[in-house]
Amino acid sequence: MSARTTRLLLLLAAFLAGLGTLFAIVLLVVRPETAAMVPSAAAIGGPFRLVDQNGQAVTDRDFKGEPYVVFFGFTHCPDVCPTTLMELSDVLDKLGPDAARIGALFITVDPERDTPAELKDYLSSFNPRFKGLTGDLAAIAQVAKSYRVYMKKVPLDNGDYTMDHTALVYLMDKNGKFVAPFNLKRRPEDAAADLRRYL
Ligand code: NI
User: How far is the CA of 106 from the centre of ligand 1 (A)?
Assistant: First the structure.
């Protein structure tokens, strides 16, 4: 191989490495909370055993026979979580008495800070139907995995941390089977009418 060919190959390799780095950066910048990652419908959800904001044990079987929505988030979330919980609250409000037949789960991705007491305090700002669920790290990791939820601790400059996480709302039917991501980008009465179809 001539010196010239070697030099060209080295240049090409450097160029490709640069491209690879650029691609990796693009992937990192597109965070799941901004890009709604829609998982494939197969096998989303599964058994769990967690604790609610009143310290009561809650399992997936408690929702047999009623449709329910599941949202993963954390109480220190600056915007996406409170916005989603507010929008879901509006939908539950529009359901009137039917809301009592629909489950609404807020599962923390930050169990280290989100104790039952913390969840209780936080959820007092939203529709009372919400069950805020927490558990030990292993139980939370398992339920997040079963819902294909991405979650990652991200350190902040001030020594604190935030959580990156998937911000989809999962609609589950009466049999605990995943139906589709629940669309909140519509009038709450329309979203409520959609939910009623699964009663
Ligand atoms: Ni959030």
Answer: 11
